[in-house]
Amino acid sequence: MEQSPKKASRREFLRRLGVIGSLVIAIGFFIERMIRFLLPKKKTKTYHKYLVAKEGEIPKGAAKEISLSGKPVFIVNLDSGYKVFSGVCTHLGCIVRWEEQNQRFYCPCHQGIFSKIGEVTGGPPPRPLDEFTVEMDKQLVFIKVEDK
Ligand code: FES
């Protein structure tokens, strides 16, 4: 039995439509995979909270030194609130000390001086002391440390 030209033409049209549709889907899938491969994945930062002091534990103008992962950290109680700094000098990595009478941090290695808010006020350090983000919660002082 022979098909009419009109029926054959419709069948041919549907076949081509199926082939083209499949091709479009395959190409779209391939492009989507390529884009995922080429673009770097966004990493979400995660943090840990560490309890570093209790409210009232450190008198105004004083500092408390603790060790965090083997590195010194200073919690300073200022009129503006608590500030927490790394005790590692930004020059060559010596350990700074808090001088309460001068309200400053002092690095004995090359006489580096940092103010009570961690800014460089003397000596060779190229930048301020690293500062941690402080969070107060129910009379407790926490710092946020980014996970590496
Ligand atoms: Fe601190 Fe040089 S290491 S001033």
Please tell me about this protein's structure.
The protein has one helix and ten strands; from the N terminus they run αββββββββββ. It is of the alpha+beta class and 148 residues long. The chain has one helix at residues 5-38; strands at 47-54, 63-68, 71-78, 81-86, 97-99, 104-107, 112-115, 120-122, 131-137, 140-146. Bound molecules: FE2/S2 (inorganic) cluster. FE2/S2 (inorganic) cluster binds at residues 89, 91-92, 94, 107, 109-110, 112, 123-125.
List segments where confidence is low: pLDDT < 50 over at least 5 consecutive residues. Answer: none
Q: Characterize the largest beta sheet: strand count, sense, and whether it forms a barrel.
A: 6 strands, antiparallel
Radius of gyration: 32 Å
Helix content: 10-25%
- DSSP summary, beta strand count: 10
Q: Could you tell me the mean pLDDT?
A: 92
Structural class label: alpha+beta
Tell me the span between the first and last alpha carbons: 75 Å
Element string (H = helix, E = strand): HEEEEEEEEEE
Bin the strand percentage: 35-45%
Spatial strand sequence of the major β-sheet = 1-10-9-4-3-2
Shape: elongated
